[in-house]
Design goal:
- This protein has 340 residues and is α/β, with parallel strands linked by helices.
- Helix content is 35%, strand content 19%.
- It has eleven helices and 15 strands.
- The strands form three sheets. It has an eight-stranded parallel β-barrel with strand order 7-8-9-10-11-12-13-14, surrounded by six helices.
- Helix 3 (108-122) runs parallel beside helix 4.
- The longest helix is centred in the last third of the chain and has 17 residues, at 318-334.
- The radius of gyration is 21 Å and the shape is elongated.
- Bound molecules: phosphoenolpyruvate and manganese (II) ion.
- Manganese (II) ion (MN) is lined by residues 103, 274, 300, 310-311.
- Manganese (II) ion is lined by residues 103, 274, 300, 310-311.
Length: 340
């Protein structure tokens, strides 16, 4: 249930309302989003007409919800959330933003070569690369960390691109946010609730990847965790879920992606690279993802895929990427979108 507070509601009435909820042992979040203030309770709570009557001076509206995720839904906000990063990079409009780059930052030469190719050849506006890599093996390359972020800063200054990079936990969230235009929460972190809470305090867009073990409901609840912290700039990302099929790395859940567009006002990005995990299959899957009419695509590209230190099998070569982009453009055009 979402209780919308009136602008200029008497503070003592708001306090009485909050005390009434506490007295009834109803957990709630005091949420300020885009200048409006709400008290949000579990959707299963039936409400308290007497309390609402007594506190009417503070209440503009009381809205019940059928689902436990609430703030991310079109029932709460019918219109798309629009996230404008400047320079034509707008999520939630008619653009499909192509975000590309290597999985991990490995060296200055590697990221500069990747960025040079992507920007000079294709005018890519958002460059991806991870400095903090949440690897499944403790013995795998864990990322270049702060040194990597500094290389991303060089990429940003040299090529004028926006940066999306991953945060692994809240100990380095502030430093990642300093270097990132979009902070990425990876599939393995979707259930990391203290990180989600910290992302709620950020004033930066957060790309939230669906855990490969999560239902849509759990993804949307994770989005609500961030929004309930006061950050409305959440981008959802479908990147494949684990099914009984191990040959492709994961299974891109396109049906759920289509459903997310209906349920949620948040921008939606698809990641064909992690979903399929095999470079030769990334272009056809990226094409099908573009055909869904999504707000963005996240594609891994490496100057020398055979040498990639992370996600080698799925990294596109420059030649593979070059063959893909014109096709994506044509497909986006066919679904009334512009590839940027
Ligand atoms: C990534 O984008 O490099 C990444 C680690 O993605 P995911 O969290 O989807 O595995
Ligand atoms: Mn990767």
């Amino acid at each position: 249930m979402i209780i919308t507070l009136r602008a200029g509601a008497p503070p003592e009435t708001v306090a009485s309302l909050a005390q009434g909820l506490d007295a009834a042992e109803v957990p709630f979040r005091d949420v300020t989003l885009a200048g409006s203030r709400y008290l949000v309770t579990s959707a299963s709570w039936q409400g308290a007409p007497d309390l609402f009557r007594a506190c009417a001076a503070a209440i503009e509206a009381v809205r019940p919800f059928a689902t436990e995720y609430q703030l991310c839904t079109r029932a709460f906000q019918p219109a798309n959330t629009v996230i404008d990063l400047g320079d034509g990079v707008v999520f939630g409009g008619t653009a499909t933003i192509l975000m590309a780059g290597p999985c991990a930052i490995e060296s200055e030469d590697q990221v500069m070569r990747a960025a040079e190719h992507l920007v000079r050849t294709w005018g890519i506006k958002v460059f991806r690369a991870g400095a903090f890599k949440p690897r499944t093996s403790p013995y795998a390359f864990q990322g270049a960390e702060l040194q990597g972020l500094k290389l991303l800063d060089k990429v940003r200054r040299t090529f004028g691109v926006k940066i999306i990079t991953e945060v692994k936990d809240e100990t380095h969230l502030d430093v990642v946010a300093e270097y990132a235009d979009i902070v990425q929460v990876g599939t393995k972190s979707m259930y990391h609730f203290t990180l989600l809470a910290a992302c709620g305090r950020l004033r930066k867009p957060v790309l939230l990847k669906r855990s490969f073990m999560a239902t849509l409901k759990e993804l949307l609840q994770a989005a609500d965790f961030i929004m309930a912290g006061g950050n409305p700039q959440v981008i959802l990302c479908e990147r494949g879920i684990r099914t009984f099929e191990p040959t492709t790395r994961f299974s891109l859940d396109v049906g759920s992606a289509a459903l997310l567009r209906e349920i949620s006002h948040l921008p939606l990005v698809l990641d064909p690279s992690h979903a399929v995990g095999i470079a030769s299959l990334v272009p056809p899957v990226a094409q099908s993802a573009a055909a869904l009419g999504v707000d963005g695509l996240l594609v891994e590209v490496h100057p020398n895929p055979a040498q990639a230190r992370c996600d080698r099998d799925q990294a596109l070569s420059f030649a593979q990427f070059d063959a893909l982009v014109p096709r994506l453009r044509a497909i986006c055009g066919a679904v009334d979108r512009t590839l940027i």
